[in-house]
Amino acid sequence: MHIILEHVAVGEYEEALSPSPGISALLCVARERNLTSPKLPYHKVPIVDAAVVPPEQLADAVEWIHRTAEAGAGKVLVFAGQGISRPPSVVIAYLCLRLGYPFEQAVETVARRISPISLLPGLAAAVEEARRKGL
Question: Which pLDDT score is estimated for 52?
Answer without folding.
Answer: 95
